[in-house]
TrEMBL record:
Gene3D superfamilies associated with the record: Electron Transport, Fmn-binding Protein, Chain A (2.30.110.10)
Pfam family for this entry, one: Flavin_Reduct
Domain Flavin reductase like: 19-170
InterPro entries from the UniProt entry: Flavin_Rdtase-like_dom, Split_barrel_FMN-bd
Molecular function terms, GO-annotated: FMN binding; oxidoreductase activity, acting on the CH-NH group of donors, NAD or NADP as acceptor
Protein's recorded name: Flavin reductase family protein
Positions of transmembrane segments: none
């Protein structure tokens, strides 16, 4: 099949686009609003942007009435957000924290997620997550959609502090298979890593060293 989404509706009963780009990581974003109410929500429209300095982004679509998501507004107003690693152990809480509830509701409480305070801001982090990235908000790019729901706030942040629980570090690296990190597939489907392998691009050892160890 093929179709042109700028001109026609998907000919299948379910929209296929988001299943074309899978698995997607899940940025489980914690923020706090100006009144100190904590917020937690998953975003699979998210990625690493660059590595030096490390930067990440997540994309929050507007609601049908054009209001913006709390995660985007809070990151802007406080200047901080935290990217928590979403894992299989925490999947029920990840799902619950996506519920659309009033801004006054603390989704940590709603989803029964334990908090620990970040080091550099008042933002809470997911205590049981293997890894948390404290991010300083950099900018918002709002991309106008064909509808309010299509309009999206792309939030960019610089990772200022990286936390990884020691039990997830093995041989000087993150033990990714131990984390059982959660990924978003298309539709309502999810995945964890079941088959990982190593493969090296043929290159000079200095370049390989940069990839493995960073640019410093
Ligand atoms: C796994 C998962 C991924 C999601 N990814 C996104 C996303 O990338 N962008 C988005 O706008 N909403 C996404 N959602 C929906 C938001 O999590 C949901 O609207 C949430 O209530 C937003 O909360 P907030 O207003 O507290 O920021 C996702 C939901 C789930 C379950």
């Amino acid at each position: 099949m093929k179709y042109d989404p700028s001109k026609e509706k998907c000919p299948l009963p379910y929209s296929i686009f988001r299943a074309c780009i899978t698995p997607r990581p899940i940025a489980w974003i914690s923020t706090t609003d100006e009144n100190g109410i904590d917020n937690l929500a998953p975003f699979s429209q998210c990625q690493i942007v660059t590595i030096d300095p490390p930067m990440v982004m997540f994309c929050a679509n507007h609601y049908p009435d054009d209001t913006r998501k709390d995660s985007a507004r809070n990151a802007e107003s406080t200047g901080w957000f935290v990217w928590n690693m979403a894992t299989e152990d925490l999947k029920e809480a990840v799902n619950k924290s996506a519920m659309i509830v009033p801004s006054q509701v603390d989704e940590f409480e709603l989803a029964n997620v334990a908090k620990i305070k970040a080091d550099l801001s008042q933002i809470p982090m997911v205590a049981d997550s293997p890894c948390q990235l404290e991010c300083k908000y950099i900018s918002t790019q709002t991309i106008k959609g064909n509808s309010n729901l299509g309009t999206v706030d792309l939030i960019l942040g610089e990772v200022i502090r990286i936390h990884v629980k020691d039990e997830y570090i093995k041989d000087g690296m993150m033990d990714v298979s131990k984390t059982q990190v959660l990924a978003r597939m298309g539709y309502i489907d999810y995945a964890t890593i079941g088959n990982s392998f190593s493969m090296q691009v043929p290159m000079a050892p200095e370049l390989l060293n940069i990839i493995m160890c960073g640019s410093d």
